[in-house]
Write a structure and sequence with these properties.
The protein is an alpha/beta fold. 41% of the residues lie in helices and 17% in strands. The chain has two domains: 3-163 and 194-223 and 276-294, NAD(P)-binding Rossmann-like Domain (Rossmann fold, 3-Layer(aba) Sandwich); 168-189 and 226-273, no CATH class. The longest helix has 19 residues, at 82-100. One of its GO terms (molecular function) is aldehyde dehydrogenase (NAD+) activity.
Length: 311
């Protein structure tokens, strides 16, 4: 891989993928809608070319994909736009990859697996989700794997990390660093996975460098599971936060959904805070190598430091 295109480069995982590619000496085209944010994130990066455009404009994608070896699809759009726009988005990305005759590496979540079953979920676990968004993710997988170019999917748990602005944990951390009363989504005693975005980026870039990784889906787990209580304790020890952290319940979000369409779409995904999906990464370890796994204490501290420095 000499040159890569990262779609959604201004988002949490997209930003981390650009950083990982640059570390490996790979030229990167960083693509997103907002030029100012791209310039802020990637200032002084010699290997990064900034390109702005609309992923729903096929010409913008085709121009950005010229002469690249791999496209990393890390675009995130609001839940309320999923039903109408996600299939079109995936088709646009696939067509751009086909036109460029390059490989395609797709950042995916765990929605297509549905509820957890009490044990770790591997890639053979049935994809028979009970949510509309999970069903859409299955549809997107079908669209991508019908492409005429090599495609791989990487399934990640919820993100946290530098520039992961829309992550659930960022919602908590943001109030903490302002020294305001914070809120945590879901039962604080339940343990679940959150992947540190630089770890996820290392894993998907490594996959993209292996020919045998294409034509398959891969699970990328986090560094174990952790409860909300433990996360908050790490936060308190790092920045001496003393205020209480309230729990956001499903009922609260359902009520907010009466007035806010984004909150309305969050409700069906809250099963992940009750019946967590925990990923089995043994396939990756057997076929590719050791999984990156930054301990939560270190990853959370780095994330908080980034947020405090970058406001």
């Amino acid at each position: 891989m000499k040159k890569a295109l990262v779609l959604g480069a201004s988002g949490g995982m997209g930003y981390a993928i650009v950083e990982e590619l640059v570390k490996r000496g790979i030229d990167v085209t960083a693509f997103a809608r907002t030029k100012e944010k791209l310039e802020y994130l990637f200032r002084n990066r010699e290997k990064v070319q900034i390109v702005t455009g609309d992923v729903f404009n096929q010409l913008d994608l085709l121009n950005a994909a010229k002469e690249v070896d791999v496209i990393f699809h890390a675009i995130n759009i609001p839940y309320s736009e999923w039903y109408e726009k996600q299939p079109t988005l995936m088709k646009n990305v696939v067509q751009a990859a086909e036109a460029a005759n390059c490989k395609l590496a797709i950042v995916d979540n765990i929605y297509s697996y549905g509820r957890g079953n009490g044990s770790k979920v591997n890639e053979k676990y049935p994809k028979n989700p009970h949510t509309k968004k999970g069903q859409i993710r299955v549809e997107l997988g079908n669209i991508a794997f019908q492409a005429s170019i090599p495609v791989l999917f990487a399934h990640f748990p919820d993100f946290y990390g530098p520039n992961a602005a829309n992550a659930m944990l960022t919602y908590t951390f943001d109030k903490v660093i302002q020294n305001k009363k914070a809120m945590f989504v879901g039962n604080q005693q339940n343990e679940r996975e959150y992947i540190y975005t630089p770890d996820g980026a290392k894993a998907i870039v490594e996959l993209a460098l292996h020919e045998k990784a294409y034509g398959q889906s891969w699970n990328i787990p986090a560094a174990g599971v952790i409860s909300g209580e433990k996360i908050i304790n790490i936060v308190r020890s790092h920045i001496q936060y003393q205020k209480s952290v309230l729990t956001v319940t499903k009922g609260m979000i359902r009520f907010l959904g009466i007035f806010d369409k984004q909150m309305r779409e969050v409700v069906e995904m809250l099963y992940l805070t009750e019946d967590p999906v925990v990923l089995d990464g043994s396939k990756y370890e057997q076929e590719i190598g050791p999984l990156p796994a930054t301990p939560y204490e270190e990853g959370i501290k780095r994330t908080l430091d980034y947020m405090m420095k970058n406001g």
